[in-house]
Amino acid sequence: MKIKVEIENAIKEMGFVDLTDIQKQTIPLLLQGKDVIGNSHTGTGKTAAFGIPILEMIDFDDPSIQAMIITPTRELAVQIKGELERISKYIDRCRIVDVYGGEPIQRQIGALKRKPQIVVGTPGRIIDHIRRKTIKIDNLKYFILDEADEMLKMGFIDDIELIFNKTPENKQTLMFSATMPKAIVALAKNYMVEPEVITSVGSNKTNSDVVQYYYKVNRENKTEALYRLLNIYRPNLALIFCNTKAKVDELTKELIDRKINCDKIHGDLPQTTRLDVLKKFHNGVIDILVATDVAARGLDIKNVEAVVNYDTPEKADYYIHRVGRTGRIGRLGYSFTLVSKGELRRIKDIERITGTTIKRRNIPTYEKVMDVKSDKFVEEIKSIVENENLEKQYITLNKLIQAQMSEDEIIVALLKKLKTEHDSSKTKADINETFENRGRSNSGSSYGRNKSRADSDGTRFHINIGKKHGLGVSDILDFIRSKVKMNAREIQDIAILTEFSFFTVPNKYGPSILSSCNHKKLKGKPARIQVSKKRR
To answer: Does 495 lie in the same domain as 350?
Structure first.
C-alpha cells in the first residue's frame, strides 16, 4: 500500500508499527472506491482505518467539504478530529472542523467559513448547519458513520436518514457498527452500493494483551476493594466503569475523600465539563476517570493501564468495549471486575460469549496495601532528601530538639502521624467472599485448589529500576521475554515504584531469570535482579 509521504511520516511519528486487522481490511477497499460496512469494536484502530485512505484521496486544492464523519457523541467527534489532525500533520492545506451541540454555533460557523475539506460532527448539529447553509455537501465524496448502532440506540436513525438524503448519490460510504441490528442492515440496503462487509478478527472477544481478573466481594465493600487494588497495582491511568450515573457520582466522591486523584464523566454533566475532564485525563493531570458506558463510548485514550468494572457490566458487549480501552498497541493492560453475589452469573455469561477465561483473584489484604504504601513512602522521603531545599524544615526540627525530644522520637512520632493521615482504608478485615453461582457449587473449591498451588509456585523478584528511569509494565515484559522464553501472562503482579520494581514468575523460570536477565541493560541501566525478601 503506497500512501503520501506526509501521511507516512505522520503515522510513523504516532508510533504505528503494524496495521490492525480492521485497518488491513478497510484501507485497500476504500482506496478502490468501494462502500464498506465494518463490524468492529472500539480500540481496533477504526479512525486510522478510514482516516488514512480519505486523507490520501481528498483534493486539498478544492476548498469544498469532501468528507463527513458522523458520530453519536460530542466527545467522539472531538477525538476523531484530533486523530485526523495528527495523521494529516504534514499536509499543509488540510482543514478539519468539528461541530456538535452544547457549544455556541457562531464559533463553528466561523470555523466553517475557513473552507474545511473534512467535517466531523453529531447528527443534530450537522442538520442544523445544513439547514443554515453553513455546511454545503454538494461535492461530498466520502461519508462515514461511526458507532452506527449506538446512534440507533440514541434515537438518531431519522436524523441519519435525513442527512443521507441530502448527500450526493455518487459518494463513497463507510459504516462502522459493533452490532448489526435490523435497522442498521436496512440503512445499509437503502443507502449503500454493494457494500463489502468486513469483521475485525476477534470482534466478539477481548484483547489478548489484557490480563483479566475478577474478585468476589460484597457490594458494601467494593470501594474498599477498589482502593486496595489501585494502591497495589498503581496504574498510571485507570478507567473505572459504573452502570449508573448516580453510582459514578457517589464513587467519585468516595475516592476523592480517600485522596485518590480522580474525576468523572456521564451524560448529565455539561459538555464543557466533560471535555475538560477528558483533556485532563488524556494529559495525565488526573489518574483515574470514573465513567458510565455511554459517556465513554468510542473514547480512544492512549496508555490506559487498567480498566476496573466497579459494577459488573450487564451485557458481554459492554464488557468487551470496556476492556478494549486497555492493552493497546501491544502493551499489557489489566481488567479488574468486582463481583457481588447477584452479579456472579454475568461473569459466566461473559466468559461463554467472549470465549475468555476471567481468572478469580483475592483482594489484597490490608497489611499488603500498607507494605506497598510504606515502600512508596520511603522512596518519596529519599527523593525529597536528594532533590529539595529543606532549610525551613531544619528550623522546625531544631525547635523539636529544643523541646527535649530525641531525633528517633521525632521521626517515629512523625511517621505515626503520617500513617494516620494517609491511611484511607475503611476496614482492616479480609473482604473476600466465597459465595457461588447457583448450579456451579464446585467452581469455587476447584478455584481454591488452583489458587493455592499458584501462590506456592511463584518466585517474586526485585529489580533496581523504576518509574524515575522511565520504566513501564511493557518494558519489563519485553525485557524478560527477550531473555527467557515464556508467555507474557506468566509474568504476574508487576509493581513499578519510583526507584525499583517487582514481578513474579513461576518457580521454574527463576534460575533462567537470574542467569539471563541479571546485569543486562534495561532503560540504559544494568539491571540488578534478586529474589525479593519476604517481610517478617
So the answer is: no
Distance in angstroms (rounded) separating the CA atoms of residues 437 and 7:
52
Over residues 511-519, mean pLDDT: 92
Q: Which residue has the higher pLDDT, 297 or 293?
A: 293
Tell me how many degrees the CA angle 481-486-487 measures, rounded to the nearest 5. Answer: 95
Dihedral (CA of 249, 254, 259, 260) sign: negative
pLDDT of residue 62: 93
CATH of the domain at 262: 3.40.50.300
Three cell numbers written together for 41 = 469494536
Q: Write down the pLDDT at residue 535.
A: 43
Please tell me whether the overall predicted TM-score, pTM, comes out greater than 0.70 for this model: no
CATH code of the domain containing 469: 3.30.70.330
Inform me whether the pLDDT recorded for 425 exceeds 80: no
Spatial distance between the Cα atoms of 492 and 504, rounded to a whole number of angstroms: 5
Q: Note whether 233 and 180 are same-domain residues.
A: no
Q: Provide the number of structural domains found in the chain.
A: 4
Specify which of 247-251, 279-283, 442-446 reaches the highest per-range mean pLDDT: 247-251
What pLDDT score does 27 carry?
93
Closest CA to 121 of 141, 87, 97, 143: 97
SS3 489: helix
Q: What is the pLDDT of residue 456?
A: 45
- Provide the grid cell at 188: 445499509
Does 226 share its domain with 243? yes
Pair 425, 497: CB distance under 8 Å: no
Look up the domain containing 341 and give its range. Answer: 210-363
Residue pair 245/360 in contact by the 8 Å Cβ criterion: no
- Shared-domain flag, residues 113 and 16: yes
Distance between CA 182 and CA 6 in Å, rounded?
Answer: 40
Alpha helices per DSSP H over 14-133: 21-31, 46-57, 74-87, 105-112, 123-132
Burial class (CB in 10 A: 0-12, 13-18, 19+), 131: exposed
Alpha-carbon distances of 125 from 66, 227, 513, rounded to whole Å: 18, 41, 58
> What is the overall mean pLDDT for the chain?
84
- Indicate if the pLDDT at residue 421 is higher than 80: no
Q: How far apart are CA 290 and CA 251, in angstroms?
A: 8
